[in-house]
Design a protein that fits this description.
3-stranded antiparallel beta sheet; globular; YdbS-like_PH; PH-domain like; 2314_t:CDS:1; 5-stranded antiparallel beta sheet; 40% strand
């Protein structure tokens, strides 16, 4: 994980919304998610850049289908104040979701609590 001024990279990669046609249509998106901000670069030759401060996040979501689960993929949805939600579908999104959630809650001063869901059944 790269660090710069207490900034830790949570996930970075490229998404291809149009599949193998993305390079031809200049629609690939390069993402860098850190504990401080979310950067995206898209368009022809990186003509559009967008940065969201993690403090502006209002909600986070994670979803994956059975096929995505088997292949290690998922969709991270980031709801930001006064903007349409950002969706990142790629490999490793479950771990990115967990680490981003912890960083987001830390900026709000909330301690993340994870419960053990294993249940022990006593026989009588």
């Amino acid at each position: 994980m790269a660090q710069h001024n207490d900034e830790t990279t949570i996930w970075q990669g490229t998404t291809w919304p149009l599949g193998c046609l993305s390079p031809l249509c200049c629609s690939s998106v390069r993402w860098r998610i850190t504990n401080k901000r979310i950067d995206s670069v898209s368009g022809c030759c990186g003509s559009t850049e967008h940065t969201v401060d993690i403090r502006r996040i209002t909600d986070l979501g994670f979803h994956r289908s059975c096929l995505q689960m088997l292949s290690g993929r998922g969709t991270l949805t980031i709801h930001v104040a006064d903007q349409p939600p950002l969706s990142v579908t790629s490999f490793g999104m479950k771990g990115a979701y967990t680490r981003l959630k912890e960083a987001w809650l830390a900026t709000k001063g909330v301690v993340a609590v994870f419960y053990d869901v294993s249940v022990r059944i006593k026989r009588f």
